[in-house]
Structures are given as C-alpha cells and as structure tokens.
Amino acid sequence: MTKQFTHDDISAMPQRFRANFINSLSGFKSATLLGTTDGTTPNLAVISSVVHIGANPPLLGVIMRPHTVTRDSLSNIKQRGVYTLNHIHVEWVDKAHQTSARYAPDESEFEAVGLTPQFSETFEAPYVKESNIKMGLSVAQHFTLLNNTEMIIGEIQELFISEPLLSEDGYVDIEAAGSACISGLDSYHKTTRLAQFAYAKANTPLTKK
Amino acid sequence: MTKQFTHDDISAMPQRFRANFINSLSGFKSATLLGTTDGTTPNLAVISSVVHIGANPPLLGVIMRPHTVTRDSLSNIKQRGVYTLNHIHVEWVDKAHQTSARYAPDESEFEAVGLTPQFSETFEAPYVKESNIKMGLSVAQHFTLLNNTEMIIGEIQELFISEPLLSEDGYVDIEAAGSACISGLDSYHKTTRLAQFAYAKANTPLTKK
Q1: Is position A52 within any domain?
Q2: Do A40 and A192 contact (CB within 8 A), yes or no?
Q3: What is the pTM of this model?
Q4: CA distances (Å), origin B69, targets A14, B29, B98, B127, B186
Q5: pLDDT tens figures, B195-204
Q6: From the CA of B180, how many Å to the nearest CA of chain A?
Q7: ipTM over 0.85
Q8: A117 is a domain residue
Q9: Which of A127, B26, B111, B163 could form a disulfide with A52 if both were Cys (CB 3.0 to 4.6 A apart)?
C-alpha cells in the first residue's frame, strides 16, 4: 500500500517525527567518528553526512549543524583547520552512538565512551585507534548552505588502512574492514555484498568482477 | 598490518586506481536512481552521493560531475528544475548499475535496463515504479565546488513510500524496504540491523529502542 506525502504533509509533521522521517529518506549513510581538538581536549562526534567530492585532489565533504551537539567539533575545525574521519566498526556502534550525548567542552568523548585517541607524528587531530580506516584532513573549502547548515570540504592529508583490505584495482573492502552504516538518526547496520560489477557498457550484458 | 598513505602517495597513484581508492573511503553510500527528463526522453542514472541537508524545510543534496556519464541528468535538472530520487532495491542492483553505461541522449535508460517510468499528476520528472521509496524534488540551491563538481540541493515536493515502512516516531525502515547501499564505484550491499538506539545522555548507559 503506497502512501503519498505532499510538501504540506511534511510541513505539518511534529518536529521530532519529521526529523526521523526526513533523515531516513536519504538512504544508507556512512558511520563515521569525527575527531577534533581545541589544542587540549580530544573531541569525538558520530556523524553520518560524509560525502565523496573528488579523487584528485582527494576531497570529502561533511554537513554540520552549528547549534547542535556537534558545535564543539565545528568550532575546533574552524580554529585548527584539521580533523580526522574514522570508520565505525560494527562491534562498537554503541560506543560510537554514545558520543552523540552532550558532554561538556572540557570532557573528552574518547574517555567517556571507551575509545582510544591516537596521534600521528605530523597531524594535530586525534584518530580513533580502534578504527580500521582513518583519515586526516585539512579544510579546503567551507560555506554556509541555504538552511544555515555548514558544509566543510576537506582534503585528505594522510590515511591509515589495514593493508589486506586494499584490492589490486584500488578498491578498499570496507565490508571486510567491518565498517558499519547508518539509517535515520539512530539505526546501525552491517552489510553483506550482493555483487561488484564491471564497467557497464550500453547494449552489452553486465558482468560481475 | 596498518599501512600509511601520505598525500604524495595518493597523488602518485594511477588515475583509475586512485578513483577506486578514494571512492571507497567515504564509507557506505546510499544507492539511488536519479530520474530526470528533457521534456521528451525519461533519463535514469545511478548515483551514490545523496546527502541529508535538513528536515525543515526537507532538503537533500547531490554531488555531480559535469563531464561524466551523468551530464545528461545534470543538464535536465538545470533545464527543468525538477528531478526524482528513487531507492535502489537489493533485487535489481544489476539493472540500476547498468544505467551507468553511456547511452545516447535520446535513448531512455528506463527501457534499456528494464525499469518502468511512472509519473505523478503534478510532477514532470519520472519516478521508478519498482522503487519502494521515491521522492520528487525541485532545485533549491546550486553551486560549483572547488574541484568543479556541482552540488544540487533540492527540496522534497512529494514522496511515495510503502506505508508499513513508517514507524510511530517517523523513522522509515529502509532496510525492510529492501534499499541497497554502495561502496566504492561498483559494489552493492544489503544490510542487517545491528541496533537502533535511544537518545544518548551523558553518564547514562545507552539503551536500545
């Protein structure tokens, strides 16, 4: 039974209901921990808005809301210009989600939820030691969108992955890495590969890799 | 065995290898078919760059490359101002991926891959009949990013979902809908829910919904 929702139907929804509803519609999202620092306290925040912008130079985007629980992260990124993105593993999605609680600015989410900050020799922002895929980025572009959310585009400066995850053609097997995904605001999922396809050509049957 | 990649390592990668590599790093992505029209031919393109921008007003973003196989879609969106986003079902990821082949502008990917265009009474762009979650959007903001990719932000004007998918709190169960997700450029996955968590509070154990 298919139900239609109009623009007016959406406008009339109670705020929390609408937030759950619209946040479900964009489909499955990456489950990522954003690591930042104010120079003293390492900060960690779960985000689901990472988006691929380009490979050369290597750019990733993040959408952030300035007046929500991630405001410390956003302030740290603006101050220091660097941050880390760390894939959330299916075995500790609970710890990752707990970072969405409101901790005081001088309280580290790492310690509060039981994850370990890790630092590289050249990068100020903290990585998540337990993560199998982690990247250090510097801000490349930053602007405010029409609804006053902010988009930060970062360039990857360095990254760490477990070596067996890397295929000959460059693909990184994030399922074998145990990376989780998110739907809505609070649902976490693991994945099972259906197929990996070869380059598609018109009028030619699609083949699997 | 963890391996570090520096910015220089990434710059030195062969182009196709780097494209596969960087496209894997953003984590799992939504698997979506973008429906457009030039007024005559219904066009369909697989995309994995849908990102949540906001719930009120209901906004979704899409990142597009102007000189790739999705150039017809981008041109249609700019001309007509409207488009649809349709969740890809796990049972027809092959048909969805086949839309990434280069078809002539006057050839409909719907017909070529075996999916059915569906029109609502009030919306010009074609929906995918076989999709369990489909949305019609109008362009709300459009700009060019630092690497010359384009970001289109659209406002949801209407949407269609199978009614049993909607929870009391507004969450739409996209896993029950059979929505797929993507990693890299060509790997499709189904999901299994690990947990759905209640609102997290500091110094309070996290509970499941």
Answers
A1: yes
A2: no
A3: 0.97
A4: 40, 19, 12, 20, 15
A5: 999 999 999 9
A6: 8
A7: yes
A8: yes
A9: B26
